[in-house]
Design a protein that fits this description.
Keywords: Metal-binding, Oxidoreductase, Zinc. This is (R,R)-butanediol dehydrogenase / meso-butanediol dehydrogenase / diacetyl reductase. The radius of gyration is 20 Å and the shape is globular. It has eleven helices and 18 strands. The protein folds into two domains: 181 residues, Alpha-Beta Complex (Quinone Oxidoreductase, Chain A, domain 1); 134 residues, NAD(P)-binding Rossmann-like Domain (Rossmann fold), CATH 3.40.50. It has 350 residues and is an alpha/beta fold. Helix 4 packs across helix 5.
């Protein structure tokens, strides 16, 4: 079968690879769509980042690795011990690999597993004709959820988990800082939950994308104090939560000034450098600073929202690209950052 293999920074290759034997607790999925995530692009631009150049402690896998963890498709085979998933089922994937026996795993907080990893980083992923995954990763799709939408359950689950961490009251105001793919998903999920969304994004093209999707935006212009005052005015005294998705030093420092007293800042975007923050801005206003890592059993909730008609992840899709053109698409997305919110790869008959 064909698979897009990561060999190193700026080195991804579409290769013919053997179809591995299925383990007793695994399922094989014929891939219908696979999203290109920011983490995939980070590995392409400057990897290894999350990919390890030694055998992964849980999976034993080491590069080269087939990328891809945002996907949906149809089950074509199941291992002998698998129950609850059958051939012909339409599924998406909870991409979080975990040990299943530690305290976080057994208490439902599997995203905290010290041995954890991700499909497409710690083992072969779904930028391929098919993918072999643990059965516990398979998330059944309701009939009302198209496969293209199902492929985006994973990033939307990241968004839902971040909003859960913030615990915003019904009808509350959420400031989304950064309108990349995850910021866009946060804005969409927040709107579907009945929250009032304001997007802060310095890039004009991305602000325009947010506006096309119907979100209110603001440009943080001028010095930091003036910009913060404008945003607090636009949120009637400060947001009930800031979801910081840019991962930038400026974005996180700025976020400390944008909530009302007693509200939370949730950091989702992963900084590329250590950041020093003024703790007094948290203490004096009793603000909370929280991290949000992945998700915890949130993909079925997202699927339910799509099935109910309150959420449509395909609104973010700008391009659907054949798997055969995947390597060229990685190069294009690297050369044109910010041009697309979400690109899906679609395997086609070889």
């Amino acid at each position: 079968m064909r698979a897009l293999r990561w060999h190193g920074a700026k080195d991804v290759r579409l290769e013919d690879v053997a179809v591995d034997a299925l383990g007793p607790d695994e399922v094989r999925v014929q891939v219908a769509y696979c999203g290109i995530c920011g983490s995939d692009l980070a590995e392409y631009r400057q990897g290894p980042v999350a990919i390890q150049d030694r055998p992964h402690v849980l999976t034993g896998h080491r590069p080269p690795v087939t990328l891809g963890h945002e996907f949906a498709g149809t089950v074509t085979a199941v291992g002998e011990r698998v129950r609850g998933v059958a051939v012909g089922d339409r599924v998406a994937a909870d991409a979080t690999l975990r040990c299943g026996v530690c305290l976080p795993c057994t208490s439902g907080r599997y995203n905290h597993c010290a041995l954890g990893g991700s499909i497409g980083l710690a083992c072969d992923g779904a930028m391929a004709d098919s993918v072999r995954i643990p059965a516990y990763c398979a998330v059944p799709l309701p009939d009302e959820v198209p496969l293209a939408a199902g492929a985006l359950l994973e990033p939307y689950a990241v968004a839902l988990h971040a909003l859960d961490r913030a615990a915003v009251p019904a009808g509350g105001r959420v400031l989304v800082s950064g309108f990349g793919p995850i910021g866009a998903a946060v804005a969409e999920v927040a709107h579907a939950l009945g929250l009032r969304v304001l997007v802060s994004e310095p890039n004009a093209a991305r602000r325009a994308a947010a506006e096309r999707l119907g979100h209110r935006t603001i440009e943080a212009a001028g010095d930091a104090r003036t910009a913060a005052r404008a945003i607090r005015t636009a949120t009637a005294g400060g947001a009930d939560a800031v979801i910081e998705c840019s991962g930038s030093r400026a974005g996180l420092e700025f976020a400390l000034e944008l909530t009302r007293r007693g509200a939370d800042i949730v950091a989702v975007g992963l900084p590329k450098e250590p950041i020093t923050l003024d703790a007094a801005r948290l203490i004096l206003f009793e603000r909370g600073l929280l991290g949000a890592l992945g998700y915890q059993n949130d993909l079925p909730r997202v699927a339910g929202m799509i099935a109910a008609g309150v959420l449509d992840p395909t609104r973010l899709v700008s391009r659907v690209v054949p798997l055969a053109d995947a390597a060229a698409e990685f190069a294009r997305l690297t050369a044109e950052p910010g041009a697309d919110l979400k690109v899906l790869l679609q395997p086609e008959p070889a």
